[in-house]
Design goal:
Chain lengths: ~550, ~375, ~80
């Protein structure tokens, strides 16, 4: 029977592989037939025709044919996609120098400018120009916003960087609002995003490596890290995993995350994301690697550890005492958000003796006469809360908040007064809801943990909760993110890194980068940087 | 191919030993029934006696660094005798594992979940441990720090909260018992929990720095012993003579806590501490059993053994002892005697190895 | 009887989860050990469910220590 099963399995796998191969071959063969090997010919008309054949009847493709030289004897064409290019740049820095300035040169010189290198070297006023010979390359760069200059009798074409399209400005990010700190956030434009990072880390060690992923979308991504600090193995591994991706499209960094994360089946994410340049720059300085994806303001950072979700950029900008207090409060809030409903269920159904007597009376009075057991009440209220939250997000903004607040109040209030659910359940769920937003990185995993724990508590009480918690602990302990244990620096314990877990030590005491992430260049600042009053001058001649 | 790819640090070994001993909280009753209020002395003397033996375990592990107990006995005693010794080790591990699991489930049934059938609790606990064991030694080691941090906080804070309820006259008169009883109590202490760390001979092979094993063994043993001492002092000082007839004195002692009349009924913290540390201890023993079996049979992976061994353990738990009284009797009079020779066996192995080395050296010199 | 059918189903699920991995990797020795341990476990659990009085290993140890070797602490 098992032979049979395994045979089935194998044949299925093989079939799958075959299908994949066929797909690839199909794709590739189409490409090869049409363009990739096709070199440019020396005939301008032919070249234009073959490009038109590939791009077909795209209405946004613009081909401008013109002639230049002192008598207009050299015919040429520029090709670009409308809306993806900077028109002023094309008019002023490509067409104008070719058509206008060249009128005033003598005939001998005019003959020389047929040479494409001379055009590139002496005439065009554009920063980035490359030469290309295959039609495939030309089409690809044209589609990503470059302008192509084809000249009669030249077997090469110029790819002129002229990207410029409408983008959203650098604005305050919505997901990570802060009180103190820089207000800029990443945008949808990859170049803007790398600029934002480069402006924070002005070091030659700050590396940005480009890559293109997606057969159809050709999405540009960029791997950012600090050379000499980030673990080379992590960088290599990241590149390996990124190169493995063979899909038709990448629309958001979430796609990349799904393809490269260590634990694809876990409810915890092992890759962090952020919308704020200062957060990402801080992580890069700690030795992490960032992946920026064109078309999304969310930048991926890894290796990610569990406690990263409890750290916020603002912790490092405010004073250490308050920052440490907030840290502890975040841990408490997270504990409340996953434990409050299940504890309520366990205490009311199984361990009434654990509730202090005065409180017990209140609880008993409030749940008196409600028709459902505590588990059902809590689960139902949890579902209602999630619905309200989802509705609040999706509805148009002005309506959304009103709906969610009014909905919660009305449903909660009337359900209690109608005797459907106990008042305490509403309090517990409300507390949970508020607490779950304190740690944004774990909000989604927390919602699932909550449900699991409530069910366990409903079936086995306190022991069920403990079993659930130990299970979560085992799962967290078995996770790794790019080689770094997910629970570090707690487990495996690295005592020196505890400086940034439950409390945050003053900035001048943060001597090292996290040891679990960085293998080299571990010291990040000088040893004695604690501010001290200036040494007293020995002779105080003036004061006498 | 290596059967276990994980590597743990020496500090993680320390944490695991501490957690392993803290889980013995439940076993404290065995000796305190015999030595009564002098049990703290028995614990202390037991600790002092176990230290040299534990150090010889560490020396054996250092002598064969990177080898587990099974591989060591294969090397020392050859293929056939070695196999027999390995099998007896594994059987002992399996038995200890099932007895501990059984005792803990009995505790849970008595105090918290009286309605639940025992197989449900056993299955649940075994499932959790199997999950951890499947993750490998690294996962168990990583869980250990968080678990012992929590357990230590609970031990210390309950001690502080109970200070006002303690009657230190409960310890008087000191050493008012026949010497034979005292020796028996100490023997129970040594065999039932201190020397159980023989199981760590299966795990020391995976410590990254072999030279630090000795230190971490020593520290683990001392810190674990001290936490047991704190627990026992707390129980006897709070409960007095009553503590010797209860099934779980810890649970009953903590019931006395009442801070400002609001924080009462803190015994759930004892349960939390027990569940987590027993989970750690059981996982370590489970791991040692499975790994030992796989190494004895020269398998390439221990993962396929995890589930069957778990099920066998559950059935062993159910058939071993119809009541906790039977287990109690066995733990007080039979088990320590049975297990001591096996626990001392590695010392003999060390002795043999050292002798052989010396004779080789002598032989070499003579030539 | 119901319990035994249920139990057999549980064991079958375990078999289906574990065995294919071993077969695919050609771990024949591991498969043999796994299967024999699993059948031992199955026999044990069936006996427990049927309420057959299996002698506990602890009783055997007690007999060995107490009656044969006469080493129990109780006697001294």
């Amino acid at each position: 029977m098992f032979n049979f099963l395994s045979k089935k399995l194998r044949s299925w796998q093989q079939q799958n592989q075959n299908i994949n191969k066929e797909n690839k071959e199909n794709d590739n063969s189409k490409k090869t037939k049409e363009n990739s090997q096709a070199k440019l010919s020396s005939n301008l008309k032919e070249n234009l025709d073959s490009i038109k054949a590939i791009l077909g009847v795209c209405e946004d493709l613009i081909i401008r044919e013109f002639a230049f030289g002192n008598k207009g004897q050299i015919s040429a064409a520029i090709i670009f996609i409308d809306g993806m290019v900077d028109r002023t740049l094309i008019n002023d820095n490509i067409i104008k120098p070719l058509m206008y300035d060249n009128r005033f040169i003598c005939e001998e010189e005019s003959l020389e400018i047929k040479n494409i290198d001379i055009i590139k070297g002496t005439i065009l006023y554009v920063g980035e120009i490359e030469k290309s010979t295959t039609i495939n390359d030309l089409v690809e760069s044209c589609l990503s916003g470059d302008t192509i200059l084809l000249i009669e009798k030249a077997k090469e074409a110029l790819v002129i960087s002229s990207r410029g399209w409408e983008t959203r400005g650098v604005v305050d990010p919505e997901t990570e609002t802060i009180v103190r700190g820089p207000r800029e956030g990443f945008t949808e434009n990859l170049r803007t995003n790398t600029t934002l990072l480069r402006r924070k880390i002005k070091s030659p060690d700050f590396m940005l490596e480009a890559m293109k992923i997606g057969r159809k979308t050709n999405t540009a991504i960029s791997i950012a890290y600090l050379k000499g600090v980030a673990n080379p193995e992590v960088i290599e591994e990241a590149k390996r995993r990124l190169k493995r991706i063979d899909t038709d499209g990448i629309l958001e960094s979430g796609y990349i995350e799904g393809f490269i994360e260590d634990a694809p089946l876990s409810i915890f994410s092992t890759i962090g994301n952020s919308e704020k340049p200062d957060t990402v720059a801080g992580k890069i300085l700690e030795g992490r690697v960032a992946v920026l994806v064109d078309g999304t303001p969310f930048v991926l950072t890894f290796p990610m550890v569990f406690i990263e979700g409890f750290q916020s950029a603002e912790d490092y900008y405010s004073r250490p005492y308050y920052a440490s207090l907030v840290r502890v409060i975040r841990f408490i809030a997270f504990a409340i958000s996953i434990l409050a409903p299940s504890s309520y269920v366990a205490a009311t159904t199984f361990h009434q003796e654990l509730i202090p007597t005065p409180l017990l009376f209140t609880v008993a009075a409030s749940s008196e006469g409600t028709p459902f057991p505590a588990v059902v009440e809590v689960l139902a209220m949890g579902v209602i809360f999630e619905i309200l939250r989802e509705a609040g997000i999706r509805l148009p903004r002005p309506v959304g908040q009103a709906i969610s607040i009014v909905g919660a109040l009305v449903i909660g209030e009337s359900a209690v007064s109608a005797g459907l659910i106990g008042g305490i359940v509403v309090i517990v769920i409300a507390l949970t809801a508020v607490a779950s937003f304190v740690v944004p990185a774990q909000t989604d995993s927390g919602a699932i943990l909550r449900v699991i724990l409530v069910i366990l508590a409903g079936s086995m009480g306190g022991v069920g909760i403990m079993v659930g918690l130990i299970g979560i602990l085992i799962h967290l302990a078995s996770l790794r993110s790019f080689g770094t244990p997910y629970l570090s620096p707690l487990a495996p314990l690295s005592p020196f890194d505890l400086k940034d877990v439950f409390f945050r030590v003053p900035i001048w005491a943060m001597l090292t980068r996290p040891k679990s992430i960085v293998r080299q260049n571990i010291q990040r600042q000088k040893f004695i940087l604690k501010p001290t009053p200036p040494p007293e001058k020995k002779d105080k001649g003036g004061s006498k | 191919m290596k059967i276990e790819k994980g590597v743990i640090s020496s500090s993680q070994l320390t944490f695991m030993i501490i957690g392993f001993l803290q889980a013995s909280n439940l076993l404290l009753v065995f000796s305190s029934r015999i030595v009564n209020h002098d049990s703290w002395l028995a614990i202390l003397v037991g600790l002092v006696i176990s230290i040299p033996i534990a150090l010889s375990y560490a020396a054996l592990a250092k002598e064969f660094s990177g080898k587990t107990l099974i591989q060591i006995s294969d090397i020392i005693y050859g293929a056939y005798l070695g196999k027999m010794i390995s099998v007896s080790y594994i059987l002992i591990f399996l038995l200890t594992f099932s007895i501990d699991l059984r005792l803990f489930s009995d505790f849970l049934i008595t105090y918290i979940m009286p309605e639940t059938p025992i197989w449900a609790i056993l299955t649940l606990l075994t499932f959790l441990s199997a999950w951890a064991v499947r993750g490998g030694i690294e996962v168990i080691a990583r869980c250990s720090f968080i678990i012992i941090a929590m357990a230590s906080i609970i031990i210390l804070s309950t001690f502080v909260f109970l200070l006002s309820d303690m009657e230190f006259s409960n310890f008087l008169p000191v050493f008012d018992l026949p010497l034979k009883d005292f020796i028996q109590g100490t023997h129970i202490n040594v065999s039932l929990y201190y020397l159980e760390i023989i199981i760590f001979l299966m795990i020391m092979a995976f410590v990254n720095k072999t030279e630090q094993v000795r230190g971490s063994m020593l520290w683990g043993l001392i810190l674990g012993g001290v936490s047991l001492l704190i627990l026992e002092v707390r129980n006897v000082a709070v409960l007095g003579i009553v503590s010797n007839i209860l099934t779980s004195p810890s649970f009953n002692a903590v019931r006395y806590i009442s801070v400002a009349e609001v924080f009462t009924r803190l015994e759930m913290f004892v349960v939390i501490m027990l569940i987590t540390t027993v989970f750690l201890k059981v996982s370590i023993m489970y791991y040692a059993t499975v790994l030992g079996l796989a190494q004895t049979l020269h398998l390439r992976s221990y993962l396929p053994l995890v589930t069957p061994i778990g099920i066998i353990t559950i059935s062993l738990c159910i058939i071993s002892g119809d009541s906790s009284m039977e287990l109690l009797h066995g733990g007080m009079y039979i088990w320590p005697v049975f297990i001591l020779p096996i626990q001392l066996f590695p010392v003999l192995s060390l002795f043999i190895v050292k002798l052989r080395k010396k004779s080789k050296k002598l032989g070499a010199n003579e030539e | 009887m119901k319990m035994i059918i249920l139990l057999a189903m549980v064991f079958l699920i375990i078999l289906i989860i574990e065995a294919p991995k071993l077969i695919v990797n050609k771990y024949w020795k591991e498969l043999i050990v796994f299967l024999s341990l699993l059948s031992l476990a199955f026999i044990l659990t069936v006996l427990v469910i049927l309420g057959v009085d299996i002698p506990s290993p602890l009783e055997g140890i007690e007999y060995l220590i107490d009656d044969i070797l006469d080493l129990s602490w109780e006697r001294k």
